Amino acid sequence: MNREREREKLLRVGVPLILFMCGGTYFLSVGMETKLEIKDRKMGQSKSVRNFDLEEEHKALMDKLKLEDFSLSRIPRPDEGKTEVKPHDTVDYGVKKRGTNDKDQK
């Protein structure tokens, strides 16, 4: 009796879920493919079909970058100018060094 309920639940819930997932995946892929085909027709030639020349693409990207106007400059940190930054050796973390007593550290 209990096994019959489990099988019935699987048929009632599991099978429709699996069909919905598989069907949704199929219809979404077909829909997206159709949408992209329509878009390609409107634009003329598809980007994937057009002739590709690596030299031309490189030249176009370099023109966009405009490396002549580029200069390196340092960006100041938010805490610069406000407080003095101590080197790592002089920072006191409140930890005693090994082999020393309180008199030596002060």
The helical percent reads 40-55%
Helix/strand/pairing category = mainly alpha
The largest pleated sheet is described as: none
Low-pLDDT stretches: none
- For the residues shown, what is the average pLDDT? 77
Question: How many helices in DSSP terms?
Answer: 3
Q: Note the run of SSEs as H and E.
A: HHH
Strand content: under 5%
Q: Whole-number radius of gyration?
A: 34 Å
Cα shape: flat
Amino- and carboxy-terminal Cα gap: 83 Å
Strand element count: 0
List its traits.
mainly alpha, 106 residues, 55% helix, flat
Task: Give a written overview of the molecule.
The protein has 106 residues and is mainly alpha-helical. The chain has a domain at 1-71. It is built from three helices and no strands. The protein is flat. The termini are far apart.
Briefly characterize the structure:
By secondary structure, this protein is mainly α.
